C-alpha cells in the first residue's frame, strides 16, 4: 500500500472522510520543488486548498497543475521572492481570496544555503541568509496576522522549517545556522502571543539530512540566482558525499537509520504537525533526523 493511501486510511479511521485538512487554506513557501512540493500535494490530498509560493514561476505553476489535475480547484501558484515584503503581502492577499477570506496554515519552508567559513563570509552571504530564513518568515506571519488573530473556532497553524544547523551549528554555515536558529525563537514567540486568545499553534521542524538539491552533489550544477543576479551553487562536494566508512556513506554514519530522508518522508512530518493529530503540540522544535543528534 502506498504511503498516501495509508495516510488516507488514518483520516477515515479518525472520522475525517474528506481529509484531515478539509476546508483549510495553506500557504507553503518554497513549494515549487522538493519538500515543499511534496507537502503541497499531501495537503491537497487531505482536503486543503494550497497556495504554491515559489521564486520559480514555472515550477510553482507545474506543482499547482499537478494538484489541480488530481483535485480541481485545490491549488494556485503565486511566484515571487520571499525577501520582497510586497510579494509576501500579495501572497497573503491571494490566499485570502482563494480561501473566501480565511487562511489557516502557513509553512515557512523557502530557503537555501550559501556556505562559507566565518572569517571569509561576505556581507551579502550573511545578510541574505538572515533575510531568507529569519526576516521573510517573520514578515509573512506579520502580514497574515489579521487572518490568524481571529476567534472563529477554526484551527490555525504555523510551521517554521529549520535545520539541525540551527540547533547545533555547523562548520561553514554560520549564516545559515543563525537564520535557522532564529526561526525557533520566532516559533515560540508566536505560540506565546497568539496561542492564549486565538488558539494558534506554532511549531518548528528541524530537518537533518534530506535528499534535496541542497544535499545532492555540488558538481551536479544546481544553483539559485539571487534577486541581485548572483548565482549561488547548491549541494555538497562529491568528495564529501563519496567518503565511506565500511559500507556506509560517512554522511550517514551518525544517523541510526543509516540513510537520509526522502522529500516525501520529510513532507509527511509537516502534514502531521499541521493536522489535528498534533492538536495539542505547540511551541515545540520537532527533530526529523532519523535519530541523528539524539
TrEMBL record:
The lineage's top-level taxon is Eukaryota
User: Has the keyword Oxidoreductase been applied to this entry?
Assistant: yes
**Keywords of this entry:** NADP, Oxidoreductase
- Does the record's keyword annotation contain Ion transport? no
An example GO biological process term is: fatty acid biosynthetic process
| Ketoreductase domain sequence ranges | 24-197
User: Looking at the Swiss-Prot or TrEMBL record, what is one Pfam family this protein matches?
Assistant: adh_short
A GO molecular function assigned to this protein is: quinone binding
What family classification does the UniProt entry report for this protein?
A: Belongs to the short-chain dehydrogenases/reductases (SDR) family.
Protein name, per record: Ketoreductase domain-containing protein
Organism encoding this protein: Uncinocarpus reesii (strain UAMH 1704)
